[in-house]
TrEMBL record:
It comes from Ciona savignyi (Pacific transparent sea squirt). The keyword Nucleotide-binding does not apply. This is C-CAP/cofactor C-like domain-containing protein. Belongs to the TBCC family. It is found in: Cytoplasm. GO terms for molecular function: tubulin binding.
Length: 345
């Protein structure tokens, strides 16, 4: 049995020692890296807990303040409760504030402790019940009553000699029904209808079931209700109260008002002078632009309606179906300037 020379054994042992030293050094380095990583993770965890605690404190402070603001609004101090339109606007503002508060809670719930999350949810539910109860108290539903036929008066509206934007003007005139303080235009197709200040100033005007019509309301109505309108152009002077729009499709509306409420509406352009924020619900594909109506008596009608011409929130829209305040609602957009229409009547 041959033996390795002593010199060869020494070389072999030296190489083995080097490999062992390298392995040990690598293990020590890996252990040190793991230790440093553990230390960093602990620091991050402590910092994360601190940030979460700060976020939770920020939420608690602001959540409490917002609830206090809404409850103060529910006291209805200095509110002209005799003016239904003013009361409705006030509660619309309360509802919008409540939706923003709920959105704030939903965005914050991920870092809230469970007990704080449950408590906040309970407070929201309680506040919502208060809002609904107070709204029912301050804005009772109108009782339904049949109107006496003897009070019904039919008259002809003023008809323009100019050709309408669409269709023909009825030679016999558009039949307009007047009920007490309400002026009603309904069930019309392919007509142009003009109502002046003597007919509509400070009155409630209703437009219903209209198709392919052009309507001019050049006065200062008290409120305007628009429903079931398709492919129409509606030009409205300054409204002292609210404008309510429901089920409007493929149309163009121009109005000045204190408050605009839009429901179940699609593919419609709104040219607005609105002193509060417009509210939309169950509505999509609408565009907004500044008020474009112009006629000789417009300035005097602004004064009669009590609208501030210097305040126009035409591009401030609250979408009750879109609560992600950090991103823009896909249901409405600002109409490009190049596509806006200047109305001269």
């Amino acid at each position: 049995m041959s033996r390795k020379p002593a010199e060869a054994l020494l070389i072999e042992n030296d190489q083995h020692d080097k490999r062992m030293q390298k392995k040990i050094h690598s293990q020590l380095e890996e252990r040190n890296q793991n230790r440093l990583a553990d230390m960093q993770n602990k620091r991050d965890e402590i910092e994360g807990e601190k940030v979460t605690e700060e976020k939770s404190d920020f939420f608690s402070k602001n959540f409490k303040n917002e609830i206090a603001v809404i409850e103060e609004m529910l006291n209805c101090k200095e509110l002209n409760i005799s003016d239904r339109a003013v009361v409705v606007d006030h509660f619309d503002a309360i509802t919008a504030s409540f939706h923003r508060l709920r959105k704030f809670f939903n965005d914050s719930v991920m870092f809230l402790p469970k007990f704080k999350s449950r408590k906040s949810m309970s407070q929201l539910n309680e506040l919502e019940q208060k809002i609904n109860a107070k709204r029912a108290e301050m804005i009772p539903k109108k009782k339904f009553a049949f109107k006496s036929k003897a009070k019904k008066i039919e008259s002809k509206s003023n008809i323009s000699n100019d050709p309408p934007a669409t269709g023909n003007v009825s030679k016999a005139g558009a039949m307009v029904a007047k009920f007490s303080n309400e002026f009603l235009v309904k069930d019309k197709t392919d007509e142009t209808i003009r109502l002046n200040e003597q007919e509509i100033n400070q009155r409630d005007v209703s437009l219903s079931n209209l198709k392919n019509c052009t309507i001019f309301l050049h006065g200062a109505p008290g409120t305007v209700h628009i429903s079931d309108v398709e492919k129409c152009v509606v030009s409205i002077g300054p409204v002292s109260g609210s404008v309510f729009v429901d089920r409007c499709v493929d149309s163009r509306l121009s109005t000045g008002c204190q408050q605009l409420r839009v429901h179940h509406t699609k593919r419609t352009d709104f040219y607005l002078h609105v002193t509060s924020r417009a509210i939309i619900e169950d509505t999509s594909d609408i565009r907004v632009a500044p008020y474009n109506t112009n006629y000789p008596e417009l300035d005097s009608h602004f004064k009669l309606a009590g609208l501030d011409k210097s305040t126009n929130n035409w591009d401030k829209v609250d979408d009750f179906n879109w609560l992600a305040m950090s991103t823009h609602s896909p249901n409405w957009a600002v109409l490009e300037e190049s596509k806006r229409i200047t109305e001269q009547t």
